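Researcher: Next sequence.
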Amino acid sequence: MPRMHAPLEPGDPVVPVALVTGAARRVGAAIARELHAAGYALALHCRRSLGEAEALAAALESARAGSTLVLRAELGEVGALPALVAAVVGRFGRLDALVSNASTFYATPFAEATPAQWDELFASNARAPFFLAQAAAPHLRAARGAIVNILDIYAERPLPDYPLYSMAKAALRMQTLALAQALGPEVRVNAVAPGTVLWSEQPFKAETEQAIRERTALGRPGTPEDVARAVRFLLTEARYTTGAVLPVDGGRLLAT
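Model: Next structure:
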């Protein structure tokens, strides 16, 4: 069920509205804060992190009342996605931007990978963004809005022991191009492909910080805010850009 804050009053100026999936924490929360500072009203989606989503909404509400809506949903349940979009439009009356950030990430070594893991990783990283965009498309067309998908540099090269995750992100990369073609000219569809901007919370690391420094042209990891600024750019400034994937990796893809 949606958690609502004070509604906008009649006669308030129209503000753009963004739905950000996986918005409660980490990169998603940074994107939410960046877009809110840029003037967006926000629908903050979460799956398990309801408390963190509510805390983020409260902080944003203290800056601008009536500007947030918290939505809890399992994106793997495709049938629930139209209701998610309907809740946003019912609250704010419009939808200008969709940021598909929610993702599942864990290792699946080739010899041990299972069909269940395939289904879970593709559901969150590829299937949900597609059908959420499908549900949102009429509203985005009406607003001449935009979609930004959050990829990974490993959509272009496989991360060892993460074949299913890498494949799912590659599918999302192609989805970005296909939706840009399908939804133009009214809706722009682009993607951001981060490199290392946060360390995994899992007990293993794909790369060490020293490896990042050695293999990245800028010699350091990035930050969630680097990704958030790229998302804002694609939504608000890149008016003649669609079907593009913007790497935010410090030059990591330059490594041989």
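Model: The two ends are 48 Å apart (CA to CA). Residues 115-143 form the longest helix (29 residues).
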